[in-house]
Structures are given as C-alpha cells and as structure tokens.
Amino acid sequence: MDIKIDPIKCIACCACELACGYHWDDAMSPITSSIIVYRTREKKNYFGLMLKTEENLVLARPEGIEIQRIGEVQEGVEADPSAKPIMLRDACDMCDGVDGPLCVRFCPTGALYL
Ligand code: SF4
Ligand code: SF4
Predict the structure, then answer these.
(1) Which of 24, 34, 56 best tests ligand 1's pocket when mutated (most atoms within 8 Å of CB)?
(2) What's the CA gap between 73 and 20, in Å, rounded?
C-alpha cells in the first residue's frame, strides 16, 4: 500500500516534507523526506509532489499522476534539481506502521490519503 495523492488539493505548504523528515530523523527538517514539493522554473506558481516508494517515483502534478519505475526515471525528470535529492533518499516505508503515516496526518487539505 502506498500513499495516495490528490494533487489538485495540494497547496505546497510542505507540512508533509517536515512530517516525513521527522519520521526519519526525529527533527523538523525536510532533508531526508521521502516526499517533496516539486517546482519548476519554467512555469510560475506551478508545483506538484514527488513521492519515492521502493519501486517507483510518483509524480503528482495538477495535470495528473505519473508513475516512473526507479531506475527507469526519464531523463527530463531526473535532470531536474528537484528530483535529484529524492533519488538519494530512503523510500517511503509508510512510517513503519508507527502512529500512522505522518504525512497523511499533517496534510491540512486532504491531498494525501490512504
Ligand atoms: S508515509 Fe511516512 S515515510 Fe512515507 S512519505 Fe509519508 S511520512 Fe514519509
Ligand atoms: S502537506 Fe498536503 S497540502 Fe501541504 S505540501 Fe504536502 S500534500 Fe501539499
């Protein structure tokens, strides 16, 4: 089971990043988060989410969800600075069953759900 994402509801508050960083490091830092807000330089005020799972990189953009197999990530995404850090991080482990998925609990809009 993976986290599900409704990108239209996301407001890019980054609470999920902080919650996930807390899961991994017991600190309020997003540097190790398995989920990140994805921005582009080409389009102003455009954002989506990236979620790294064991097998996939899930790209959740306003226009829809795209799932890329790890190791087969398309060049255009892998080359983006937003994508590089997440490929080096641990995959989502669903918070190892402790206290429920923190990102889901702290998302204020219901953009993340099970
Ligand atoms: S379920 Fe836990 S490990 Fe997975 S993205 Fe959410 S906070 Fe991170
Ligand atoms: S916590 Fe929810 S609204 Fe905020 S960035 Fe994450 S998915 Fe988007």
Answers:
(1) 34
(2) 22
